[in-house]
Amino acid sequence: MAKVTTMFVSDNQSGVAPEVVEALAAAAQKSHGSYGGDDLTAELTARFRDIFETDLAVFTVPTGTAANALALSAVAPSYGAVLCTADAHVMADECGAIENATGGARLEVPEAGPKLTAVVIDRHLSLPRDVHVVQPAAITIAQATERGLAYQPAEIEALGEVARRHAVHFHMDGARFANAVAALNAAPADITWRAGVDTLSFGGTKNGCFAAEAVIVFNLDLARQIEFRRKQRGHLFSKNWFVSAQFLASLTDDRWLKWAANANAQAASLAEEIETSGLGRLIWPVEANEIFVEIAETKLRALTDAGITLSEWPDTTLPVGSSLPAGAKLVRLVTSFSTSKADVEQFIQLVATIGSEGMT
Asked: Do both 244 and 112 map to the same domain?
């Protein structure tokens, strides 16, 4: 049996969907208008308007970090504060991009836990603030979250109501938005603008594309300045149709949702097999395509020796008040649009083989 290596380390390590490759090849066959003045980009905007059932503006960028920084820089001044979770991508994985793009706005963590909640955010935003402190400017949530959880429509709506009442903007980091939509079986509009979201970082790279992210702007008052900020920060593609072609291929026939649904289904199957095999204990419910497992160090070493690379995760990802037992590690596994049932079976078979040889 071939060894499993980095199969479940990250959905960033999966390849590109064949339909996307075909679309890129077709897009390369003729010239198009530059800097977004092309038919494919116009078609993409129309497609997103259909999906979200509203008027909106679309600004494509190369990375999720660029999308988040662009969206938040349009609403958070240098003396502002952006409220997020402790493990939000903007906080933990973007090298100060938000602070840099805003000229110094602060990221604030108002509560412990994997999600922001309306009650705590309302209380935080109600605190008296004078000229000596930063002023709240925005709320940002990840959908799905960094712990693989999906915000329910009611949770988003409650946060949106709090944001409106306190006159702060509401941003959603949707690097895995497709996984959340597929998990919830919800209309994209119901968990974005109808619930009060102003801007969405819509991810394609983790879901079949290779360089396709976009800022979807529902609050059109922000569109003009985002257009200029994108150019100023070097994220305006001259040959933008290659990004649009990727998105159009993924959005055609609801492929983006089918791919995400596959990732979610394989994650659920893998998680069940992990528990059944006794490999480890699930830390969080598996609602999208990420699995967090507590694994004994001895088992982890056996897997590594067998050629399986798994991604160890900081214990700050654990539920509040909990800790790992002695001799255990926290590991994250991620499935993707291209993960197959055979991939899961191969992994579990290898785990079983190692177990039969004395993995303890």
From this structure: yes
Segments forming the whole domain that contains residue 27: 18-253
- Give domain status of residue 9, yes or no: no
Q: Considering the domain boundaries, does residue 184 fall inside one?
A: yes
Alpha helix locations (H) across the chain?
Answer: 18-27, 39-52, 64-73, 89-92, 97-102, 118-125, 153-165, 177-184, 223-232, 241-251, 255-277, 297-305, 341-356
Q: Which of 353, 294, 347, 354 is nearest to 324 (CA)?
A: 294
List the one residue out of 69, 41, 77 whose CA is nearest residue 232: 69
Q: At what angle do helices 64-73 and 223-232 cross, to 10 degrees?
A: 130
- Do 173 and 220 lie in one domain? The reply is yes
Say what the pLDDT of residue 356 is. Answer: 52
Terminal CA-CA length for the chain:
22
Residue 174 — very low, low, confident or very high, per pLDDT cuts 50/70/90? very high
Mean pLDDT, residues 73-80: 98
Sign of CA dihedral 265, 268, 274, 280: positive
What does the pLDDT read at residue 124?
A: 97
How many residues make up the chain in this entry? 360
Residue 316's pLDDT band (boundaries 50, 70, 90)?
Answer: confident
- Tell me if the pTM is above 0.90: yes
Q: In this structure, are 219 and 276 located in the same domain?
A: no
- Measure the CA–CA gap between 281 and 283, rounded to whole angstroms: 6
